Each structure stands twice: as structure tokens, then as C-alpha cells.
Amino acid sequence: xxxxxxxxxxxxxxxxxxxxxxxxxxxxxxxxxxxxxxxxxxxxxxxxxxxxxxxxxxxxxxxxxxxxxxxxxxxxxxxxxxxxxxxxxxxxxxxxxxxxxxxxxxxxxxxxxxxxxxxxxxxxxxxxxxxxxxxxxxxxxxxxxxxxxxxxxxxxxxxxxxxxxxxxxxxxxxxxxxxxxxxxxxxxxxxxxxxxxxxxxxxxxxxxxxxxxxxxxxxxxxxxxxxxxxxxxxxxxxxxxxxxxxxxxxxxxxxxxxxxxxxxxxxxxxxxxxxxxxxxxxxxxxxxxxxxxxxxxxxxxxxxxxxxxxxxxxxxxxxxxxxxxxxxxxxxxxxxxxxxxxxxxxxxxxxxxxxxxxxxxxxxxxxxxxxxxxxxxxxxxxxxxxxxxxxxxxxxxxxxxxxxxxxxxxxxxxxxxxxxxxxxxxxxxxxxxxxxxx
Length: 438
Known about the structure:
alpha+beta
């Protein structure tokens, strides 16, 4: 039996397969460290074989992905100056293959499929954690918090906050009928409950940022393009001024107090100082990807002791940029920061300075959530984690479909959605195109 390519790689027809692939990915991101290689192999199996279905889809406009490709190459080359070359080599291969999977996902599924698959996957992830029901001592603030099947309350908080975010954007943009309220109700209830018992201040603080950006961009739909630009410029200036005024007025310390934190962010500022001091030893290239937190080296052993990490694994500087600076130097942290900013700004600029699209609103909100979390967690630097997958998905989704005049339609075109601007599949491009009939 011949399986049509469209049910695997056409974003308008592969909703079933795409949803399944995202569900598998979410479970792998959550519990690959718990269940081992079987989940990673499943993650590879749902994305990588799609390359061989129609390779032209993935080579079209590959140059637009030059920055992530350059960063992945740099991560791999860090093996040559790494203080733990074997560990760096293995982690670099994992990170590069993870990036390829995110690229394949961005080229084969649409944002609605990502949202639906994420909601289902997050439900299973949180349900299993609730079944495990584990609580653990947070050595940084001395409290017992829900960690479920994870090793950190912040990881529970990340999946729970993503569950809330994706639920609200699904209801707002992608729900097709009243059944959408019905089948997503258990997901939002479980996400809110998990977020509440995890007591993750980072997750609680970052969620309003993502939702706020999405809400503001959503409201801009009613404005003309000219007024969107004016309000964006004025609003950005007002936001910066408000933040500066709040910091000078001491509102930051008040906000920390509401979350039970102090001015040291429960030891994070000390970790940042230690990371900065370590980076000064190798400022340009760093210690090598994943080569700092290695058993047997003096500095990480000392920090593990100071923060009561008896397992001597699974620790970091609680700041993406400090972590990247230590591992990859100024060159690496600059490239990573550019990827994050381009992913974020790319979708905001589409809404503010171009055609309003719900997909760009959703991805801008997701990147806002990840951007704020990046100052307190390390979730876009490791492989096989939901943060880095979403970041690269957002980056690659900035590329628009090619637009072809109706007078010059390539041969073999199959029209998918008729209208003033048809969506069609072109064998010449190996992917959908937009036919402008206006």
C-alpha cells in the first residue's frame, strides 16, 4: 500500500501524524533521563525519517537557517579545546541531531498541530508526575516542593506553564467547535494544579510575560498597520521606562518577597558570580560544550558540595547566558543570544510591521516565556529539552512560503486551498507555495 506523502509532510494534511510526533517529543523531553535511550530513539524515529520522504522540502531556503547551523558547528568544534573532549563530542552530536529534528518539525507541521500535540503530550507528562507524586527539598531555598517524576520543581513548572499557555492560545485561535472546550478542560486543570503545587517562582513569573505579549499582539489585529507601528514604538518606550522606575523604587525586592525570595535569588547571584569567575579563565572559547560540570574537576565539585548536590550531576548556573559563556565563551554566547532574539523579534515584527497572523502571535508569546526564563534557568542550551526545541521551531518558522504569480504557476501544482491567494503544493519547490491571483 502506498502512503501519500501529504499525510506525513504537508502541514495542511498531516495533523494526525504531526500531533502524534509532538506528543512523543514532549514525553521524550520530559522523561528521557528517566527511561533512557528508548524515548530518544522514538523522538528520532518520528522526525528524522521524514527527510527521506521529500528531501527538497528541507533543502529549500536552507540558507535562512545559517545561524543555527553555524552554532551547531561551533558546538561540535568545541571538542578540540574542551577539557572533557569525550563528553563534549557526545553532547555535541546529540545537540546537532536535536536541532535537525526541530528543523524537520518546523518544515512539516503547522503551529496549530504543535499546540494540539503539546497539550496532549503535556497532559500525559503531568499525569505521570502526579502519579509518582514525589516531593523534594530545594537546596537553594530550603523548601519542599512537588517534583513528580522530575528532579526539579522548575521543570514541573515549565511543562505546567506551557500547558496553561498552549491551552489559552488554542481556545483563542485554534478551537474549531465547542468540543475544544471539552477535551482540553482536564489539561488546563491539571496544568494549573501542577503549577500551584510546584511553587516554581520562575514559572509563575514567566507565564504572564508570554500571555501578555500574546494578548497585546492579539489586540493589535483591530488596528491598521500604521497604528500598530506607532503603538509598538510608544509602548516599548513606556515599558522600558516603567521597568527602570520600578527598579529604582524598590519594587523588585517587593516582588521577590511575594515569591519568598531574597535579593540573592536564593543563591543564584552567587552562582552567577562563580560562573563569571570561571569564564574569565577561558573567555573566548570556553571550557567546551557540556564540559564544565564534570565529576573530578575542582570547581564543580566545590559547588556541588556548597549546594548539597549529592548526586554530583544535573546542576547548572541557573542562567542560560552565564552557562553558555562558561561552556562556549563569548563567541558561543553571542550566537545563542542572537538565535533567541531573532526567534523572538522575527515573529513580533511580522505582526507589527507585516500581515497579522495568529501563528506569529502564538510563537512570539512562547518565545517571550522562554526569554524571561532564560535569565534564571538553562533550557535552550541542552539537547532533548522542550525549551531548545521550541526556540528552534520558532526560529525556523520565520520563513514564509514562496509566493508565485498565477501567470507563472509551476507545472504539476496541486491546489490545496482555493482563494485569492491559493495554497498549493509544488513539486518544483518540494513544499507548499502561495499562488497570488490578485
